[in-house]
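From the methods appendix. Each design record in this collection lists the tokenized structure first, followed by the designed amino acid sequence. Records were kept in a plain field format so they could be parsed without special tools. The example shown here is representative of the layout used throughout.

RECORD:
FOLD TOKENS (518 positions):
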């Protein structure tokens, strides 16, 4: 067997062509920090592109199903959208601005089924994507996943021009889109893990994780602006955007320092053979290390994995319900007596993600400062309960009130979601119980985010049915889910509090002894 460096080079021998061209033109090599900046920037925009493509369906819902749930023919919002005459397309009936088969009485439920199909396949794919990425060139794997995501996003939008009204076409396209979307998260975490260490992990990954909200905002704004030209454009353009981003990934994203012969002369780097125990240990070690990958069942047994995975199940149930249904909810709720248009509703909903950016950074910083991931995550989930209650109860009073309450809800809903999927997953993937075996992070990340994604599938599905009867019921469901998410971390919260009390006592004893001696 060859040396560690030879093994690494053999398995990671595909240097990005864009970097090769740069080296040929400039006759010089980039610094390690420059490579780190490239990794952060490219993975940031790559995953933002994933979320931009994912967010579009929440905006398009308002065009596919304009009928207000429970509104009836006397709904002022519905009257606005039924001013256009009924169109007959053969045997297909398209009412107002709606799109068959989503414009009927069961249209809202059908849209919910599209969401659950997408996220269920996404969740199942997540359990396997990490392992697949470990066994092939990660740059190629991510590029293919992005191209596939773009392709099926575009195919959904093509249904507009092709005049497709067959529900199972859209269902199949969404399922395949979910499968390719599952390649994103394990891949970008692996890239960042190969180049960055543990120092200030919560804050760094909290800031980096803003790509989720930035992607949601971008997708929502693009889809909202294009909706007036036809809902197909709202999907085709984001699909093309992620395809172009895939090209940037293919050309410039280095998988590992060894692939670009980067010198280890910066702070957050390591010698793989020597620094497994240091505080700046990277999130992922080299794939070439002689360690056996931690199995699926063994990863579940790592202390903290199961509670955080189940917590994320309910946290993502709340977060993804907002992701897929917030523009729809806003367009069906009179704010200060006025119903907003589809475009206005989509634009307004982006403020929830603005709050999410703040929440992710804040949760990461607080958890770093307190050295208490569980306490931080649970506290945010408990605070989300009154935030959701006040948004539902008073968000309709005025536009200013709606904006403020939406921002607050975004902070507390997305904060713990961001923390658990990034810093917590990284912590547990390098848990002390693994005794230095670093080949658990991809599996742990897949378990936690995959389990959370199952909740992300169930939330939108239930919302599709419950909202047809009562939006109060939807918010009650979300508040109960937030409560359960916090309670699931109780044992870990108690353990963290006990550890801090014990630490305080241990620090106080030497001081008291010195005082007595004096």
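DESIGN:
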């Amino acid at each position: 067997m060859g040396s560690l460096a030879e093994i690494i080079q053999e398995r990671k021998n595909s240097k990005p062509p864009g970097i090769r061209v740069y080296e040929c033109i400039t006759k010089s090599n980039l610094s390690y920090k420059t490579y780190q900046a490239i990794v952060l920037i490219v993975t940031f925009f790559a995953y933002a592109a994933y979320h931009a493509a994912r967010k579009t369906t929440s905006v398009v819902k308002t065009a596919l199903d304009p009928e207000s749930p429970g509104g009836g023919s006397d709904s002022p919002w519905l009257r606005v959208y039924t001013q256009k005459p009924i169109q007959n397309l053969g045997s297909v009936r398209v009412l107002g601005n709606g799109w068959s088969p989503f414009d009927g009485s069961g249209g809202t439920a059908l849209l919910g089924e599209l969401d659950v199909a997408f996220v269920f396949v996404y969740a199942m794919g997540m359990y396997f994507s990490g392992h697949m990425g470990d066994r092939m060139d990660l740059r190629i794997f991510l590029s293919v996943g992005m191209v596939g995501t773009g392709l099926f996003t575009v195919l959904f939008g093509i249904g507009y021009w092709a005049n497709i009204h067959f529900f199972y076409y859209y269902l199949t396209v969404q399922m395949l889109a979910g499968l390719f979307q599952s390649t994103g998260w394990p891949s970008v975490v692996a890239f960042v893990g190969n180049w960055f260490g543990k120092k200030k992990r919560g804050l760094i990954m909290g800031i980096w994780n803003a790509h989720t909200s930035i992607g949601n905002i971008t997708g929502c704004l693009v889809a909202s602006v294009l909706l007036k030209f036809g809902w197909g454009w709202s999907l085709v353009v984001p699909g093309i955007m992620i395809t172009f981003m895939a090209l940037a990934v293919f050309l410039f994203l280095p998988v590992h320092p060894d692939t670009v012969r980067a010198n280890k002369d910066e702070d957050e780097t390591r010698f793989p053979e020597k620094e497994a125990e240091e505080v700046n240990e990277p999130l992922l070690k080299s794939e070439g290390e002689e360690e056996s990958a931690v199995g699926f069942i063994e990863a579940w047994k790592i202390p903290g994995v199961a509670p955080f995975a189940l917590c994320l199940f309910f946290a993502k149930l709340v977060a993804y319900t907002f992701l897929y249904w917030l523009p729809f909810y806003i367009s069906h709720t009179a704010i200060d007596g006025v119903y907003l248009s589809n475009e206005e509703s989509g634009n307004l909903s982006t403020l929830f993600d603005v709050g999410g950016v703040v929440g992710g950074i804040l949760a990461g910083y607080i958890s770093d400062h307190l050295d208490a991931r569980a306490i931080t995550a649970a506290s945010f989930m408990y605070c989300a309960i009154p935030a959701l209650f006040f948004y539902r109860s008073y968000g309709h009073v005025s536009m200013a009130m709606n904006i403020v309450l939406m921002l607050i809800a975004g902070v507390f809903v997305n904060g713990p979601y961001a923390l658990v999927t990034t810093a917590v997953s990284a912590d547990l993937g390098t848990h002390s119980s693994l005794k230095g075996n670093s080949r658990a992070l991809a599996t742990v990340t897949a378990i936690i985010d995959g389990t959370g994604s199952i909740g992300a599938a169930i939330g939108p599905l239930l919302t599709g049915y419950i909202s047809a009867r009562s939006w109060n019921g939807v918010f009650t469901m979300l508040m109960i889910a937030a409560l359960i998410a916090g309670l699931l971390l109780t044992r870990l919260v108690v353990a963290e509090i006990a550890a801090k009390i014990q630490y305080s006592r241990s620090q106080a004893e030497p001081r008291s002894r010195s005082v007595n001696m004096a």
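APPENDIX NOTE: The two ends are 63 Å apart (CA to CA).
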